[in-house]
């Protein structure tokens, strides 16, 4: 494809996306098709000869779009938001066009340096502790996801716990990882990947009301394990759990980790973005105890997936844990020690120029624009929670400090399950569920960029009507 | 940003990329700036208020582009190619615009199904063994990179070796991974991540001429380890090593793995793409023995990073090894067993709609168009190798079955190091180096989409001239 062919086709694709965004609200949020429908519409082999872009775009409309869950739909309230935005898409488009491989500073100096600066910008915008800035011993990096950040933190913790021998001799299965019973499944997955097995994870009980980790239970578990010859290696505390956005109390957890020299990773995948607003920084109290921290601009900060922002307080320790330097990657810049090679900060070797989308987002919206987006989501969630609170049929089952509301019909699970199915089958909204203290609970997570009061009110109307029929 | 604002800014960014591609050959391939130059040109904090896209594009020209290594430059001959193309960029653009999260079938049915079909298309186009097709027990998935594919293969191998106990109790440090001394550093990194440590990897000697793994040495190592109570878990064979594109002999390695029940992963990250041409499938002989296989369309198949295509023969085993199912991800489709949830096929939870760029590439070029691209690269490499062979000052240091030529000035390393530095300092071409049998060796890898005979000839002229001064 020549540059001129790309220019014409590029305009057509830009138009396609602009039109998609302008009309996404008219589509059903989720596909009603049965499994296999999309695959059945596709040929069984690639074409032998090339086809024009128009044919592909026609099939995109005919075959692909009807088979999607529309995460950017204003009625999308499932999981956590995965919001994107025009400037994010443009930054990603530049990245794709440049086709730069940022594994080493030498393979893309601007790719590396813009990333360092963007992570410093974000650290400042969120008022993260100084220890995470690149001007000291710390620094930030973009991971694909919070799962990968958790894995990297796990590996560094094992390296530290192993006293420098982990790299050579492997993992000691007496090491333990601690997280609350409400923590994300990626912690168990990381422990399994790292060779600890599920048995290497201790799930710590939570407060029955706040759903936050009990510091007393954490201390008791660590002390009992130490007494038994088990080695506490890592605590993962969560700011904004996936089920209910509970906030583990860092001011109490941090000193326990410090006392027992346990690596502390803080996973704020969804809720961290809220800290761009000074009044929403409460979850970060005690963050100065953390050895590493992450949040996902790709969840709630208008930056498309994948963009997890991950910081460590000791970058040298991270690099020691992960570096491998074969001859074909040696270069003068690396050997000067004056540059960052981000391949040593992550699991894969290769990496895209993802800092561009952060740069486009931060410059287009500015810090104030992003604050407005966060505050809008929090206000919409509060509006919805007010509706729930005012209706005696329903109960709120957890605090809603951010933009997620957890609620249910009072009483047994069955009607709640039917309510969820009924509401989602309208195609107008999409909610997901969780279990809180064993009870089936509906989750309404606000954050799609086009969601307004109208959409939240419509969601409530649909829920309220369906509730009447769900008993 | 409204859809209309996006439309206008989108045209501008498309123009920027078209102009970049049209003029990239005029830029120096690598930046001549010192470390810190880009960072020094950026503000120390994000702007408080938003700025127009034009300001960002101006800074892209002024600050970022001069600080890049231009991987799409026709004079880029370093590492392996990371080529992209117009249709790949357009597919990625659609993906960014949709902003779909493909972790589960339910979160993006078309995202999942198009990926399954694209991996089947690729398997057919490369004539991979039937065991990897989704129509049987196998199937394919997109990983971000071959490093991650190697890690996933390592985890499945450990799961299998552990007889189903690895998930719970963790890794047994008696497990061993085998690869040749020429294999990629990601194998050691994967073993370290998986908790085996460097000590868990046995590097098997290679044939001194072909640089391919010695099957006799592999057998001897496995038998000695078994006799010593060590458990062989995984062999990673490489088709097209990073240093010299050596091809480990699968027809001999496969039966050894089968006999000792060792998981066999085949890493064809770079060279696998060549198999789209029937006459270049020699490296895949014996692939029917493999439990898993990967290659990178993002290296040499005109598809932008990240796009590693990874197949397994037993998808159920892979899912068993990696699945974690918390309540908030439960859904009817998953529980029906009728769908693929690709989150269980990879390390992270989240995933982008990367199949779109493969779809755009396969349809725009067709299989014949992609064959022409591969054949073009192989012919250019052969042309360059002929120049080297005809000049008595130089020697070819390894076979060049694909599009990488490894060569050096006869004699000591010093002149070769100076030659490489001199040639790269011209800014017209960029080559990297390796060590072959301990000797400093230059690598010229063809594959950037704009590279033609003119550029290869210019590279030779620069090398030939610099050689006269390098002694």
How would the blueprint of this fold be written?
2 copies of one chain form a homodimer.
Chain A: H1 3-23, H2 37-40, H3 53-64, H4 86-98, H5 109-125, E1 139-143, H6 146-161, H7 166-169, E2 175-180, H8 185-193, E3 201-204, H9 215-227, E4 231-238, H10 250-259, E5 263-267, E6 292-295, H11 297-300, E7 308-312, H12 315-322, H13 332-336, H14 355-389, E8 394-396, E9 404-409, H15 413-425, E10 432-436, E11 439-445, H16 453-470
Parallel strand pairs in A: 2-3, 2-4, 4-5, 5-6
Antiparallel strand pairs in A: 1-7, 6-7, 8-9, 9-11, 10-11
Helix pairs in contact in A: 4-14, 5-14, 6-8, 6-12, 14-16, 15-16
Mind explaining what this structure looks like?
- The structure is a homodimer of 471-residue chains.
- Chain A has 471 residues and is an alpha/beta fold.
- Chain A has a domain at 100-352: Aspartate Aminotransferase, domain 2 (3-Layer(aba) Sandwich), CATH 3.40.640.
- Chain A is built from 16 helices and 11 strands.
- In chain A, the strands form 2 sheets. Chain A has a 7-stranded mixed sheet, with helices on both faces. In chain A, strands 8-9-11-10 form a 4-stranded antiparallel sheet.
- In chain A, strand 10 (432-436) and strand 11 (439-445) form a beta hairpin.
- The mean pLDDT of chain A is 96.
- The interface between A and B is large, with 156 and 156 residues.
